[in-house]
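JOB MANIFEST
job_type = single_chain_structure
chain_count = 1
residues = 315
[input]
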Amino acid sequence: MMRKILFGAVLSFSLMSTGCLKNILVDGQMKGSREGSGAFDTLGDYELARAALSSGIVQFEGLHGFRPDNEDGYMLLMKGWTGYAYGFAQDDYEEALLTGNEELIEYHKKRAKMAFDRGVFYGQEVIAKRADGFTEAKKSEPTLRAWLDENFKDKEDASLLFWAAYPWVARVQLMKEESQYVGELYIGIALVAHSRKLDPDVENYSATTVMAAYHARNVSAEPADSKKLFDEVLVKTQRKQLLVQINYARSYACTTANKDLYEQLLNEVLNADDPDPKFRLQNVMAKRRAKRSLTKTFYEDCGFTSAPMAKPKAE
């Protein structure tokens, strides 16, 4: 009888240990993946990066299923889905716009939206796990800002809030013709603004870049504030993060009908070599957007009457 009891105790302990070990391994893998994610940004092969991120997202989804409360997992999923949406699905959508093929345009637009939706989903979920009341708080901008002030006070919260926010904002740009999404822009902006308040340098000044673009959302907004913030980020980043110039051109320069600035910024991107290996993949994406932005389709979307030829790189 005693041997049966001892055997049962040993078996129970073994099963518990196996479960604990699995949790430890999964947590370790998530932590390692997040800490090592900077290496991904140094890739210069766009198609390799597409394949790697697609595979990574599937893996992160599986790991999250094992450890649904792990914040490293949430960060990987928010960054992964948002990066895939912006860097690849939305890039495919913009390429489709140049073809004029409505079926292809709609297909890639849906892909980008679904990826942004996934990022929004995980952002809402992790914020709600951090503090009670998010669902009610986000019903209005004043209550959301007050709730954020009450519940997120540490500099360490800035990155999580930024990645929870960015898919909200980016999805609005993609779905700008649909009031359902435009009406929720304040949610993403409140989160970005609070992220920036906690850490002005968060994600290499990405929150500041988002706010700069937001201030140039239309001619009646705050274009002077937009220009001030963009110029500040260009100085801080030493003009090495080329997506800053892309956002500057596509927001402020378009909104203010500043054709010279638009061309100057885009040609600066096209003529840049490899200004910083830490941002190599971002800069590859920026060059793709810069080239596309100087086509007739995008030029007219910006309100200009004719598209110039991209200036060749000086030898």
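[summary]
The radius of gyration is 22 Å.
The mean pLDDT is 91.
exit_status = 0
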